[in-house]
Structure formats: structure tokens, C-alpha cells
Amino acid sequence: MKEKDETEFMKEAVQAAIKGMDANEGGPFGCVVVKDGIIVGRGNNKVTSTNDPTAHAEISAIRDACINLNSFQLEGCIIYTSCEPCPMCLGAIYWARPDRVFYGCTHNDAAKIGFDDEFIYKEIALPINDRSIPFEQLGHEMALDAFKKWEDKEDKIEY
Fold it and tell me: Which of 41, 91, 124, 151 has its CA 20 to 30 A from that of 118?
């Protein structure tokens, strides 16, 4: 079977976006994960249909690919997403460790249609005490107990 080129995989991501949007599953975002020229994960935005603010296309595609590959890492994979990833999806992408990411629209394109994530980038740069949602440390010593147990765990799977 002939391998698809990058443009064909991006077309798959855009089609996932349109299909999900037409089905009223969420916003106009789609994503595919490819390994060795084969799509191993698909996702589209399902935020509004699942009442899940984390149900972005990239997150859904990463979850699908990881299940299909039986791995929590996407080494050797390429992500094709219809739009430049938001900060949450960017974090998930870095944790998944794919080899490369292709994106269609920019975050500025998304902002023009009402999906503006600039405020999140601004919040990340602020000191914790200056963020719009209050953050307060609580139970530090108690929480450290889990970290100490992790350090001592002999059968842990590091990532």
C-alpha cells in the first residue's frame, strides 16, 4: 500500500474537524496520529458534546493512538492537527513525545473565530499570586509523602 504524504494526513485531520463540527460534537478541530505511514489515532474536538473541557482534538487523538499502540509514548509518530495546539494540548504533546507535529491553522486564525487562548499564555507567565484564578499551596508535607514513596518504589515505570 502506498504511503500517504503529509498533505493527505492533514486532509484527514481537517476532515475529522469538519465531521465532528457537523455532528455538533464540538469546535472545528481535528487531529490524526501517524506511525510508519498509518493512522494510529484519530480525534476531534468533543468539548461541548461530552461536557469535558479537556476533550480537544489532540488530546483525543493522543489517547486513541496510545491505546492502539499500547504505549504511553508516541515515539516514532507524527501528529497532524488542523490548528496550532493550545497550551493544554501542547503540554500533552510534549508528554507523549512524538517525533514531529504538523499544524494547519495558527492560534491567531483560531482567535479570529472565537477560540482565543492568549489569556492562558499570559496566565502561565504570571507569578502564582497574580493569576486570575487563585492558587494556594495546601498540605505540602502530606503531598510530599506520595513523592517519597515514588522515589522508593522499585517497580516504577518511569516516563
Answer: 41
How far apart are the C-alpha atoms of 57 and 67, rounded to whole Å?
15
Tell me the helix, strand and coil percentages in the chain, rounded to 5: 45, 15, 35
- State which H helix or E strand residue 117 sits in: none
Q: Is 118 a catalytic residue?
A: no
Task: Yes or no: say if 156 and 150 are a contact pair by the CB < 8 Å rule.
Answer: yes
* Residue for grid cell 513525545: 97
Tens digit of each residue's pLDDT (9 = 90 or more) over 116-126: 999 999 999 99
Q: What is the mean pLDDT of residues 40-53?
A: 98
Dihedral of CA atoms 134, 110, 26, 14 in degrees, nearest 10, equals: -140
